[in-house]
Amino acid sequence: MKETKQKKSLNALAVHTMLLIMIISLIVPAVASENQEKYGILVIAHGSPSEDWCSPVRDAVAEVDLPYPVELGFLEFVPNETINFAVERLDDAGVTKIIAIPLFISSHSSHIQEIEYVVGLRDTLPMTAEDVVVEGMKMERTVAPKGNQYAISYVSLEADTGDSMQATGHPGDEEEEELVPIDTDADIILTASMDDHWLVAGIIADRTAELSENPEDETLVLVAHGTGEEDNFAGWVNSTESLANQARLKLTYWSDPAIGIAGTQAAFIHHNETLHPEFTLRPIVENATGPVVVSLMVSEGYFTGTKIPKLLENLTYAYDSSALTPHPNVAEWIEISAAKESTDLALQIYDEGELLDITLDDIAEAHGHICPCVASAFKASLTAFEAWDKIPERGNLEIVSSHPSDGHTETFEYILDSSEDVTVNLPEGTDILNLTEDNYCYSFVEISTGDMVVVSVKDGFFPDGFFEMREKCKTKVATPDEKSAFKLAKKELKEKFLYLPAEEVFEVEYIRGESSTELTAEIIPAISMTVTTTGVDFGKVGTGMTSGNQVITVVNTGASTAKLSAMILDDSNGFYNESLRLNGLNIGGFSGMVPADTSDFWYEYEVVTNLVVPGWAGGIYDGTIFFVAQSE
């Protein structure tokens, strides 16, 4: 096993190396404080006069698995299951904070303003009037003041009828459906709608895969309801196009077998066709190659079963009228949306008797951002600390990590306020470029007792091919699509680390220490190299010329002879890959055997370095060379 202690300083110009040092370490975690809030989850759906539309929505909410009461309320059309009734049930359950989750396709909608009014987050509403279709009937939907509140009313636009239709869906009703603000002492948090969340993209990918037959000759046409409200339409376009592209990337890189859809397009049923003709459904499908039409609707109903087929009458396309429900991702999206607001991402640790609260925001400020490595390290620490029956103490805790990234090391160092108490031990066969799931394993050890909590990511947590894709991106050989797919996967992993229940992410093993004699040893590993040259400046060199020699000093600090090779990273325009010479050889041909000096474990090996400048070059070139040491 190669065991490394992390080095952070990487010179901006030229030389990186792997520092391989072994230290025997122990570690410990901390106990999170009890969250005093009692949460309730309010899922808000639009509603429909059709039971066939409402039923799958109820089923999706019933599948939600959260440690809080969960209630569903409809904005309109379902008078016995309103938002107000749902909040009353949450109040009866004694909740103190309600997380309201709008099960809507887009946050860019006047319906969201109506929800804000009903849940008490705004006092007034703009008067709105829009043409809509309710179960096949063309209607004008109006939201207008009524007394001290607001009401929704519908008027039929069908020729010669003159009927009014109330929100219950029955023409001729005498009463309008009022928008009544809820009456509750609970605090309200309103989350975003589904928008372009990766879980929604997963549903789109699944629907597309079910319809696809010849993906290389097919176009995914993602069709959404849209809006005629110009101020909101751009939001619909952005999220719908994002979902279509995410689905394409998922199918190409993260599905088995891979499904390489040729292209994607977004289309809308409702929009200003004069201003935005490029988003009109029929011409898009008519001109697309092998159109695979997938609807971006919450539930199946008039639009999926009648409207879309009618708009595409006499065209050839693949379609099955499916909506987002039923699909398990809908319940998972509700769970993650709730977890983002209810998860206490803070841990406690003593520092010389003072109890400290360390939050994820503290780590983000120190590291600069929250990446998957920071998310994994922090959530693993929180998980380990919760396994103790007491709050751990700085100076009595060590962390051994199997991951060499700065995100991991800086997170652990911030928690412990120490670099000496954080050690990186790499599993056999892994390094900073070649990682596996085995690198996501962390040991937290209490020094005084030897008690240890080992936290490791569960098998199968990472998508197949993730680490190969990571290596491509890190070595700058990934295509733009591969970079986008990797970025998407990292976004998903970060949310899963932070907001999935810990038992779905980690395996946790608690190992109790026993009274024993403490042993300490510093073992010199077989392979350990460092580079003492921090930068190489070749100065001014003409095209077609050879630069003067520079020397890079590589030091073998290990116990065995090592084979040295190199690769170029961060190479603008491939200049160094072509021009750099190491001991007279190009990068691909360079290697050297570096002996070991077991008297003091320090043997200096000089690599003579110069440039043979190609005729096409010109300007200033920065680059990074990465040396790799292997056993002989």
Describe the structure.
By secondary structure, this protein is of the alpha/beta class. 27% of the residues lie in helices and 25% in strands. It has 15 helices and 27 strands. Helix 4 (198-211) packs across helix 5 (230-253), helix 5 packs across helix 13 (480-499) and helix 10 packs parallel to helix 11 (406-416). Mean pLDDT is 90; it is low at 1-35 and 160-174.
Short key terms for the protein model shown above:
5-stranded antiparallel beta sheet, 15 helices, alpha/beta, single chain, 5-stranded mixed beta sheet, 25% strand, 632 residues
Number of strands: 27
Radius of gyration, CA atoms, in whole angstroms? 30 Å
Q: Helical region count?
A: 15
Indicate the multimeric state: single chain
Q: Could you tell me the strand content as a percent range?
A: 15-25%
- Look at the structure and give the mean pLDDT: 90
Helical proportion, percent range: 25-40%
- Model regions low in confidence, pLDDT < 50 over at least 5 residues: 1-35, 160-174
Terminal CA distance reads 15 Å
Overall SS class: alpha/beta
Principal-axis shape: globular
| Major sheet characteristics | 5 strands, antiparallel
